[in-house]
């Protein structure tokens, strides 16, 4: 039995377009979305990998978001989303629970390699009251 995705491709494309429009209006080139619910809203990603670093990168000039997470969770991104395979990027497994390095070090490399180092970047944070 095939996996039933959370929403149709047209809905996914509409959601991403709406977010990009709001990003542009707010002056952002790139956002990093880390909340599992928001990652699902934007891409359909559904996985129990929230215990490890992961995020979606949405750039105003990139046609589709980029999923960034642990290699063993990349298959979930392939199954539950319509993201192109090239936009499913895994960090190096030795970084899991590494004492002095973090997977987001590789995320920073990805951002630099894409030419986005000088982009206006929005980072999703936990709400504080």
Instruction: Give the rounded overall mean pLDDT.
Output: 90
Helix content: 25-40%
- Secondary-structure content class: alpha/beta
Question: What is the gyration radius calculated from CA atoms?
Answer: 14 Å
SSE string, helices as H and strands as E? HEHEEHEHE
Task: Outline the structure in words.
This protein has a single domain, classed as 3-Layer(aba) Sandwich (Creatine Amidinohydrolase, Chain A, domain 1), CATH 3.40.350. The termini are far apart. The radius of gyration is 14 Å and the shape is globular. It has a five-stranded mixed sheet with strand order 4-3-2-1-5. It contains four helices and five strands. Strand 3 (66-70), helix 3 and strand 4 form a beta-alpha-beta unit. By secondary structure, the protein is of the alpha/beta class.
């Amino acid at each position: 039995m095939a996996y039933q995705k959370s929403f149709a491709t047209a809905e996914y494309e509409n959601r991403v377009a709406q977010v990009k429009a709001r990003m542009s209006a707010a002056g952002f080139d790139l956002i990093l979305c880390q909340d599992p619910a928001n990652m699902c809203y934007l891409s359909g990603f559904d996985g129990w990998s929230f215990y490890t670093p992961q995020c979606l990168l949405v750039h105003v000039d990139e046609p589709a978001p980029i999923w960034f997470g642990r290699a063993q969770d990349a298959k979930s991104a392939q199954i539950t989303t319509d993201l192109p395979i090239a936009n499913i990027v895994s960090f190096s497994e030795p970084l899991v629970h590494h004492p002095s390095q973090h997977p987001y070090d590789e995320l920073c490399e990805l951002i630099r390699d894409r030419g986005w180092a000088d982009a206006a970047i929005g980072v999703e944070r936990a709400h504080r009251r």
